[in-house]
Specification:
By secondary structure, this protein is of the alpha+beta class. It has seven helices and 20 strands. The protein has helices at about 20-65, 190-195, 290-325, 325-330, 335-365, 370-380, 380-395; strands at about 1-5, 10-20, 70, 85-95, 100, 105, 110-130, 135-150, 175-180, 185, 185-190, 200-205, 215, 220-225, 235-245, 255-265, 270, 270-275, 280, 280-285. The strands form four sheets. Strands 1, 2, 7, 8, 9, 12, 13, 14 and 15 form a nine-stranded antiparallel β-sheet that branches. The chain has a five-stranded mixed β-barrel with strand order 4-10-11-17-16. Strands 5-6 form a two-stranded antiparallel ribbon. Strand 5 (about 100) and strand 6 (about 105) form a beta hairpin. The longest helix is centred in the first third of the chain and has 46 residues, at about 20-65. It is flat, with a radius of gyration of 30 Å.
Length: about 400
């Protein structure tokens, strides 16, 4: 059953659904067992892959630090460094002038990004559920407002599209221009290194385009009648640049200096394949030593490893929760026992997920660092050892 009530530029739909019976919940819990097994297997796979990736990356970085050759000069490429992993620092250079004739924008930089926003109708959905015994009443409120968005909002999918129509496309599309070639001294950067140049800064236009109805408002080009009273379909266009070149005008400031770790192939800087397995092609902004760059990469690797470990554990905890949901379902009709059993099952799931996660991590590390791996494996058994000791202590006390 559906009802609708309106208020201002919003309306509410009311619907009802039958609540699951005890047999329905048992069926869902049985299905949860299979889902739980799949999630636990996925978590084990994720944790195992993550540890292998972390070790491979750490070994590749250590290998790179041992082999890297610091270049004292970037003005000329030395043949004896061909095929070697090198480290260099210097200002970015490019002959490319990136421009947009529509808006009269031009800059000598590695990248020029055109960002476009359009004023559009946006639908917001809010749900409220009320349990009414054998059924649940759902109140869904749809409200409409006008906002600046960088993507097309499809008004045809609104619950009430009448009076809330958006254009189907942007009259001006966003885009990114990239310089054809980029150098540091005598060395040309590979596409991988150029892709790492993402220090975007806002470009402030000097003047409004001549012979056009495009307005310049607060550093942004405006398509529409009045920037202070925007209408649906109006657009704002702004520009950002990255990698300011040393060959350009000083109007935008000094050139960006970068520090690079990569393989030298003649006058080209490209990816270096390590024996450990990873490819090294690293760019940081600023003048950094080789050790400082590798330290940053190690820190980034550690953060990624910890994040994936947490994700693996969380996936495993959800898997065990689905696996044991049948236990709580069997007693969820008894109020006090339901709370006690739910708490106990939650603690059990927490212990099992932590122990199994540590076990997978430990086994993965035994291959590379046996002492550390065995230590982690011993720690993974602590919840069960402590539980056993507590049971024995209780028996002795009685």
């Amino acid at each position: 059953m559906h009802n609708m009530a309106t208020s201002g530029d919003s309306h509410t739909r009311v619907s009802y659904r039958r609540n699951a019976t005890f047999c329905d919940r048992i069926g869902n819990s049985v299905m949860g067992i299979f889902i739980g097994i799949i999630l636990i297997c996925a978590a084990v796979g994720l944790l195992w892959w993550n540890e292998g990736r972390a070790v491979r990356t750490a070994q590749s970085l250590d290998e790179g630090l041992r082999l890297v050759v610091p270049l004292t000069s970037t003005s000329v490429s030395m043949d004896q460094n061909n095929g070697q992993l090198v480290h260099l620092s210097g200002p970015l250079q490019t002959d490319s002038i990136l421009s947009d004739s529509t808006y009269g924008v031009a800059i000598n930089a590695v990248k020029l990004k055109r960002h476009v926003e359009m004023f559009q109708w946006v639908e917001t959905e809010h749900k409220r559920e009320i349990n009414e015994g054998s059924q649940t009443r759902t109140e869904t409120t749809y409200s409409y407002s006008k906002e600046w968005r960088s993507n097309v909002v499809k008004s045809g999918s609104f619950d009430n599209p009448s009076g809330h129509h958006n254009p189907n496309s942007f009259a001006v599309e966003p885009r990114v221009q990239v310089a054809a070639s980029v150098q540091v001294g005598a060395f040309y950067l590979s596409h991988g290194l150029i892709n790492s140049i993402t220090n975007y800064r806002k470009l402030k236009p000097a003047a409004q385009p001549s012979g056009s109805d495009i307005k310049l408002h607060d550093g942004t080009f405006y398509h529409g009648k009045d920037p202070f009273r925007p209408e649906v379909g109006d657009m704002k266009v702004s520009f950002e640049y990255a990698g300011l070149s040393a060959k350009g005008s000083s109007h935008f400031g000094s050139a960006d200096t970068v520090s690079i770790i990569a393989k030298q192939m003649g006058g080209q800087l490209t990816s270096y394949q390590t024996i450990a397995g990873d490819a090294l092609e690293i760019l940081y902004f600023g003048e950094l030593s080789a050790k400082a760059i590798f330290d940053k990469e190690h820190a980034s690797n550690n953060m990624m490893t910890m994040g994936l470990r947490f994700g693996g554990w969380l996936l495993m905890f959800i898997g065990f929760s689905a696996l044991t949901s049948l236990v709580t379902t069997l007693v969820d009709w008894i109020p006090f026992i339901r709370e006690v059993v739910s708490l106990g099952v939650c603690v059990l799931n927490m212990s099992m997920s932590i122990s199994l996660s540590l076990t997978v991590i430990a086994i993965a590390w035994i291959r590379f660092r046996p002492v550390l791996g065995l230590t982690i494996l011993a720690v993974s058994t602590l919840p069960f050892v402590i539980s056993k000791m507590k049971v024995n202590a209780d028996k002795r006390s009685h």
